[in-house]
Amino acid sequence: MGVIPSVPSALLLALVSSYGEAGRGTGETKGGTTVRRSTGPKPSELESFLQMNSEEQFDLEVINCVNSNALVEEARGDKRVLREIVRTAEALLPRVRAETEDPLLVGAILRNKTLDWYRDSPSDATWMDHVPLRWGGIFHESRVPGGRLSRKLSTRLVNLINRCVEASGAAAFIRAGFTGLFRGSANVAGILQFALGSKRPRLTQQVAQAYLDDLAVRVRTGDQPLPLERLSDLARRNGSAEVNTTLAELFRQDGVSSLTVLDSRFHPEMHALAIRVVPPKTPDDASTYDLIQSDGQQAPGSEGATANADFGSPWQREDLTKKDWTDLLRAVEKRKGRLDPPPRDNPRERASYLELRDLVISETAARKTFLTVRWKGRPSGLGLLCQLLAAGSLSPEVDTDGDYLEAELEHLDKGRAERKAKDGQWKIGNGWTIVREVAKGNVRSYRANGKSGD
Length: 454
Description:
By secondary structure, the protein is α+β, with helices and mostly antiparallel strands. It has 18 helices and eleven strands. The chain has a domain at 7-204. Helix 14 crosses helix 16 and helix 16 (364-373) packs across helix 17. It is elongated.
């Protein structure tokens, strides 16, 4: 007598017969019973999942919406279907991991989702009902305070594999030739064609998910800024510098004012969308973030949406130019703020510090702005040097200020190949020579000889 297969077995044989044992034809069973695919108006969760692969049939958002509990329950009791679920999940997992961990791929996905938010959210009355569920947990776990928790997608796929193994019995998988991939097997390294290196920004997944969750819970309202609350919370927990550095890995950085998410050159029907970083008011606070619309033709740091924001902690960066520093100093001056001090540990070894110092030495306008927004306290050498160049002379109020100034001058002067040891005189570049004068009582004063203008 022929054996009547269960419905999941029929689906399995119809959909993925290529994975079956040799000699088993599609739609046939041991007893010759013909198996037909179910003909419902909509494929079941199991049918949809088994048709996925890591290439043509790959959709990260669709995979994220799969109900793993429903899959296991639908296939429970049929070991062949459970094995096919494991095969499909193991085939999808390397691609999922790559797309959710590589900063280049993550940034591209976030740009696409931002475009969806811009175009669809204003007219979708159910946006805040269904999008948080579709986007939650793609990169990292998503939490709703006092409510839903969505585990990250790669973790859910691993759990799905483990549950299928448990439901089928480990012995059945050993007999079928499964070696425990993604459950500790050494063979995993050889099959991950999408595998990545180990050097990844530490917060890539957390930053990406926080940004995505912010888009999911609010719709676009005209050209109003979108406060990125979850991203700001992440900065408070992990530090603004870490979050800013990660954002710079994901999006294009325009000067020190903003990070472009969508460029109007590639989307001429809309304004550019950028993340604005609002610096903290006190050293104990963290930066906050907004998604803003801006004119794509507007230069970074110019008058407009990003004019009164900087990039939080410029001391962590090495690519700041003189123009970047000019934009930042003007932005801080406009909001009547002060520049954060650089770390006291070897500040002159930082490229950002050296670029700012070069700007102060070379431009009168920059000296004027810097004196308005400079930090208080140590390291004080650059501030004292700026005072000296602006006024032409300087008599330090306390003796240690003279020591700080001379340390700055020595660092500038020692780099000259033609330097001659001469006590009390420093050539610091851009036509400037600084001379020390000592009056009665060993009181030091300094005179700047050089051009008075730029």
